[in-house]
Amino acid sequence: MTAAADQGVLDPSPDRTRTTTPGRVFLSPPHMAGDELALLHEVFATNYVAPAGPMLSRFEAAMAALTGFHHCLAVVSGTAALHLALRHLGVGPGDRVIAADLTFIGGVAPIGQLGAEPIFVDADPETWCMNPGLLAEALAGGARQGRLPKAVVPCDLYGQACDLDALRAVTDAYEIPLIADSAEALGATYRGRHAGKGARAALYSFNGNKIVTAGGGGMLASDDAALIEHARGLSQQARQPVPHYEHVELGYNYRLSNVLAAIGVGQLAVLDDRVRQRRAIFSGYQQRLGRLDGITFMPEAGYGRANRWLTCILIEPRAFGADREAVRLALEAQDIEARPLWRPMHMQPVFAGATCFGGGVGKALFDQGLCLPSGSALGDGDLDRICEVIRGCARP
Fold first, then answer.
1. What residue numbers bound the domain in which 191 lies?
2. Taking the mean position of all CA atoms in its chain, how far away is CA 105?
3. In what order do the strands lie in the sheet with 193-194?
């Protein structure tokens, strides 16, 4: 993301009828709420610019209230949060961890970084999230081999919660902890509760492209006080609670700064508005593109409410007249950023030879899937401009 995108948009109530955004249209730029600067002034006025400080506690408390988890730990990224959770569970060399195949690599990399073997489970075509039936197949096979995984990590893809209860029914039968990768799903719901709630732990991201941002950062959430206490210690170089520096295990420099926490506090205050705006943008795309042959949209599962972090479409080339890469390049030629869906993990060179249960669904979604600009400050003029380019790629 460029410096211009990092500046984001300062507009708490964007006018949905305004004209198009000048310059490049980014996929998902930051969108400031207006109170972040005052909160940063408060940080500087109190001189809490070092990692520790009251904004960290305020940020963690706000996340606990939002998600329903009893304990939250603010860290430098969602990937760091997953790393800490897996480390607490004792994941290490020789272990296996099952993860979603269709996901961002940050939800998988800590498995390999800890020396464990990732095993991938394909997506359900109805939700695009981990398929519970294939997970059951994977665990049954692991039980027969006497090599059950240490953990299972499904992904709440593009802001849609996975079918957590169905996945938990499978993992609970084997007493395997489930860690929800809810990095993309802040503000989404599942059966009336926040995405991730019900897992042993969940992780969230405040990266610059997420629905709300702290300019970076992540959060580890759990009802397990011991897990969060251990992760908190690990995130601060595993220093023991004595006056001098003493260490009985190796930790990490993973704590979020008090400065970034202040931005996060300001952003969380407008999360409900951002979800409404993203869902309205998704509906705007549907109204403009939904009748085109060969265009379909990411489905919304009946068990929850997606935050629609990114609007994702599938382009069937024979019916539409162009493939998703042709459409992406046409948008790029007009200075509009779009991006293919995540390339499945089993197709990544770094995981060549890894075991994958299924894989065809994720591959098909990747081959045809395109993420469209979804920033919450997009106006109707922006949507008109984007959709005009897409319609121009269709077969006459």
1. 36-268
2. 11
3. 193-194, 189-190, 304-305
